[in-house]
Amino acid sequence: MNSRRDPARPKADADQQASQGVLRLGGVAVELAGRQVLHDVDLLVGRGEQVGLIGPNGAGKTTLLRALLGLVPTTRGSIAIDGRTPREARGSIGYVPQRHEFVWDYPVDVRTAAMTGRTHRIGWLRRPGRADKAAVDEALERVDLVDLRRRPIGELSGGQRQRVLVARALALRPKLLLLDEPFTGLDVPTQEILTRLFRTLTSEGTAILMTTHDLPAAADTCSRLCLLNETVIADGSPEELRDPAVWLRAFGVARSEQLLHTLGVAR
Ligand SMILES: Nc1ncnc2c1ncn2[C@@H]1O[C@H](COP(=O)(O)OP(=O)(O)OP(=O)(O)O)[C@@H](O)[C@H]1O
């Protein structure tokens, strides 16, 4: 199955961008505590693509993101991020972890928290320079948090916290943005702000890979969906993934009317 193309973009241009691939995985396998969690994972994410990584609990979605960040080792296969290994690319990947993974009682304000996105690039003991401050202020503007930049992060709502995490990732001006469950627990207006922002970022060429359990939202916002359950079960545009069988296989269920109705693929 091929990726869906933006009709406004010339085909040759889109094909070239997709084939270059900001992110390219071939035959990737990961073991955790002696157990194979991922195997034979092939995936290509091109410039300006937003790909949804979909699968049941325990399918290996977060593990895949962590492998891309070089936080868990692969036992087989190759990962190239803009032609570099995860370790080489580490300072240039924007990563938005699940909200509960961040330390919110740390006594810093919004701007300082966003600046931690650039720690790897600045170096642990160096002070942020003018370029770092400009990048952070631009990121805060993009998520509409400029007015709250001096607010301690412990005093923020869930939606505001999510926007801090996105600003922190964008402070790197990344070519690749990895989002782990970015919409979980957010109200509709905040989801819309982020959806619009992700659309703008892809129109600027950023590649986005996002895990989510919100299947209708994924079908609505992503140009491609990758169904994962230890390996890639199917990969294509939402229109191409109309076969109920691939969803049933990805989610490991024999027959689930609810799942198929949620997806709008029930016959
Ligand atoms: N540190 C770890 N050590 C051992 N096994 C782990 C570790 N982290 C995750 N696993 C296992 O790896 C598998 C994949 O977990 P992972 O968190 O990647 O799944 P997921 O698709 O992100 O799930 P969810 O949708 O619930 O977040 C699970 O079986 C999990 O128990």
Can you walk through the features of this model?
The relative contact order is 0.18. The chain is an alpha/beta fold. The chain is globular and about 55 Å long. It has a 6-stranded mixed β-sheet with strand order 5-6-7-3-8-9, sandwiched between helices. The chain has a single domain (11-263), classed as P-loop containing nucleotide triphosphate hydrolases (Rossmann fold, 3-Layer(aba) Sandwich). The chain contains 11 helices and 9 strands. The longest helix is centred in the C-terminal third of the chain and has 16 residues, at 188-203. Helix 6 (130-142) packs across helix 7 (158-170). Strand 8 (224-229) and strand 9 form a beta hairpin. Bound molecules: adenosine-5'-triphosphate (ATP). Residues 32-33, 37, 55, 57-63 line the site of adenosine-5'-triphosphate.
**What is the strand content?**
15-25%
Low-confidence stretches: 2-11
Overall structural domain count: 1
Number of helices: 11
Under the CATH scheme, which architecture would be assigned? Answer: 3-Layer(aba) Sandwich
**CATH topology-level fold name:** Rossmann fold
Radius of gyration: 18 Å
Q: Let me know the number of strands.
A: 9
Class per helix and strand makeup: alpha/beta
Overall morphology: globular
The CATH superfamily title: P-loop containing nucleotide triphosphate hydrolases
* CATH C-level class: Alpha Beta
Bound molecules: adenosine-5'-triphosphate
Percentage of residues assigned to helices: 25-40%
Distance between the termini: 21 Å
What is the N-to-C succession of helices and strands? HEEEHEHEHHHHEHEHEEHH
Mean of all residue-level pLDDT scores: 88
Described by strand count, sense and barrel closure, the largest sheet is: 6 strands, mixed
Strands of the widest sheet, in order across it, are 5-6-7-3-8-9
Keywords: ATP-binding, Nucleotide-binding, Transport
Domain ABC transporter: 23-254
GO molecular function: ATP binding
Pfam families: ABC_tran
